[in-house]
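[09:14] KT: can someone run the structure on this one? pasting the chain below
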Amino acid sequence: MWPWGHLAFGYLCYSVLARLRRGRAPAALPVVVLALATQLPDLVDKPLAWSFEVFTTGYGVAHSLFLAVPLVLVAGLVAAAVDHDELGWAFGVGYLSHLLGDVLFGLAFGVEDPFGRVVWPLSDPSGYSRDYGFVERVAYYLEAFLVQLADGDLGVYVPLYLVLFTVVFGLWIADGVPPLGALYERLVTSEEN
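[09:31] RB: done, structure tokens below
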């Protein structure tokens, strides 16, 4: 899943949870924490695999439930201790939605062992067929994606993303475009003073 897919899926999960838990749309700061948490597993594992060859794929320790669950619990406890429990919820939903998104994406597209992506070191998914550095691997995946689009080979991938982004964009607008809405209100308030 691309970074923007993880962000959209995480936002969808968090917005729904915020409405169920608190009866209102997500606030600005938790959305920033959520956005960072949705990217964290890839920000750790991809460089470790692609640049330093610590893992055979981009699914290593940061994608493992054996790290994720304790990390999310600690983040929640720390956030609650400083009276910002919503930040803990945002971090947890962001991080865990990333892992869930990778598994669901793997299931949708026939990856051999999609659950293996989240149980490192019990499973180490097959290594890459070609060796690239970090920048080369990102370029390789982006080029493959653009070639698919240009060839009209949309399959399920593009329609799935379009539905996700359309739903999330509508939800984000309904939520007041956090954190941009809060930033705009601050700018307007400071200009009035």
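[09:33] KT: thanks! The first helix runs from residue 3 to 22.
[09:34] RB: yep, looked fine to me
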